[in-house]
Design goal:
Blueprint lengths: L7 H14 L12 H12 L7 H4 L12 E12 L5 E11 L9 H12 L2 E2 L1 H16 L3 E10 H4 L10 E8 L4 H12 L3
Parallel strand pairs: 1-3
Antiparallel strand pairs: 1-2, 2-4, 4-5
Helix pairs in contact: 1-2, 4-5
Bound molecules: guanosine-5'-triphosphate (GTP) and zinc ion (ZN).
């Protein structure tokens, strides 16, 4: 996570400069408001850089449950740090609460995916950061995080392979165990 603040005037100046470098006239009708628009868009796309994941996971249900909790098909929208192009897809996040751990709200599992996705990212890094944040905040027995994404830098340029999906997973604690992991994966893969 970056500690620097989002510098909107600097971003606007940089977008104007980029338009000039691309041979465009930033003062022509259609482009006049583009630097401000692009800056607002980046502020939204990178909002997770300035959010604290521990606050997101602070909600405690005080529930006694020691079986798998899995939220599937969480939409992921992120930006690849190599090309500044979007990648998008689905995340599946599960955990087994620990004996001295916490049960959090279901929506918080989706929010934590957002916090780490809305940054300049690598898919592998989102996957392991979400897993590690759950371990640190909930002290669960186990965690599983699976992401399946399509990267625009692989579909619209470069190798140009639209439809190719990258699957990454991170498992922690008891979900490293082959049988427990296989059960979670079968639930993730069900209904597809
Ligand atoms: N491991 C990983 N690689 C990624 C991710 N997003 C994009 N990439 C890859 O980052 C690599 C950057 O490779 P470079 O050779 O430096 O850049 P490039 O010449 O634009 O590469 P091409 O995309 O192959 O044209 C590419 O292979 C991308 O597919 C990601 O989330 N994880
Ligand atoms: Zn890329």
């Amino acid at each position: 996570m970056t500690t620097a603040a989002f510098d909107a005037p600097r971003a606007e100046a940089a977008v104007r400069e980029l338009l000039l470098a691309l041979g465009e006239d930033p003062d022509r009708e259609g482009l006049r408001d583009t630097p401000a628009r692009v800056t607002r868009a980046w502020a939204e796309l990178l909002a997770g850089s300035f959010q604290d994941p521990t606050e997101v996971l602070a909600t405690d249900f005080g529930l006694d449950h020691d079986e798998l909790v899995l939220v599937k098909d969480i939409e992921v929208q992120s930006t690849c740090e190599h090309h500044l192009l979007p990648f998008h897809g689905l995340a599946h996040v599960g955990y087994i609460p620990g004996p001295h751990g916490r049960v959090t709200g279901l929506s918080k599992l989706a929010r934590i995916v957002d916090v780490y996705s809305r940054r300049l990212q690598l898919q592998e890094r989102i996957t392991s950061q979400v897993a590690d944040a759950l371990v640190a905040s909930l002290h669960p027995r186990g965690v599983i995080v699976v992401l399946e994404c399509e990267h625009n830098c692989m579909s619209m340029r470069g190798v140009r392979k639209p439809g190719a999906k990258t699957v990454t997973s991170a498992v922690r604690g008891s979900l490293r165990n082959a049988a427990t992991r296989a059960e979670a994966m079968s639930l993730i893969m069900a209904d597809r």
